[in-house]
Amino acid sequence: MFGFLRRRRRRRLRDTPLPEALRAIIDRNVRAAARLTAEERRQLEGHVQVLLHEKRFEGCAGLEITDEIRITIAAQAALLLLNRDPRYYPTLRTILVYPSAYVVRGERRMPDGTVAAGPQVRLGESWQRGSVVLSWSDARRGGMNHQDGRNVVLHEFAHQLDGEDGLMDGTPALDSRAAGATWAHVMQPEFDRLRQDIERDHPNLIRDYGATNPAEFFAVVTETFFERPDALRREHPALYEQLATYFRLDLAAR
């Protein structure tokens, strides 16, 4: 019963048009939306309506949450849901937004295997249950510059997709065991290649942070797929095809 009511509510939200003022925010701040077909843009706006209704946005360090903040972040998160049966990030409840990069204390494992301890500047983080944390200035910058291969919203929400099967291990929930085997067959060699390229000081389109662990690799290559699809298809064709199959988008064809 509850599932039926949730599906009906979501369908009603998706069918509710976004006000023009909010559509204008997407046009201005989420430049990747210009690549979408008319049907995908309709989907995007519907997913935005659901995310705005179901997720709570909280400002941190004095930041006041505005429509611009909510729409800019929700529209980028919605890009990852196109052409699929969306679950709308089921364990996510709250999106915490700082004005800019913020400082935390803790440890972080670096791509070379070393562990950095102490104060760390972060642009975002994703918790498996409950929250995503974002820097607003970087979320906005990532949406407006959609060709540099860096997007903190895509990165952190890719972690949310990764965790839908209960583990943040670089393998999101897939349709079958065969799909999982194909995923591993493509992803593991690409991950190993990135690590080897870093050790040998060879250039690689995928940025070094992806070599930290498989979870970060999936998040980083998600950024690359949405922001530099042409280059990814040219330099890593098998990886591109695997991501195009998973996200059900062939962005390089556009």
TL;DR of this structure?
With 254 residues, this protein is an alpha/beta fold. 50% of the residues lie in helices and 14% in strands. The strands form two sheets. A four-stranded mixed sheet has the order 1-2-6-5.
List keywords for this structure.
254 residues, alpha/beta, four-stranded mixed β-sheet, two-stranded antiparallel ribbon
N-to-C SSE series?
HHHEHEEEEEHHHHHH
Instruction: Give the tally of β-strands.
Output: 6
User: Number of DSSP helices?
Assistant: 10
N-to-C CA distance: 41 Å
| Derived structural class | alpha/beta
Query: Strand-residue fraction?
Result: 5-15%
Radius of gyration over alpha carbons? 18 Å
Q: What share of the residues lie within helices?
A: 40-55%
Written description of the protein model:
Helix content is 50%, strand content 14%. The chain has ten helices and six strands, in the order H-H-H-E-H-E-E-E-E-E-H-H-H-H-H-H. Strands 1-2-6-5 form a four-stranded mixed beta sheet.
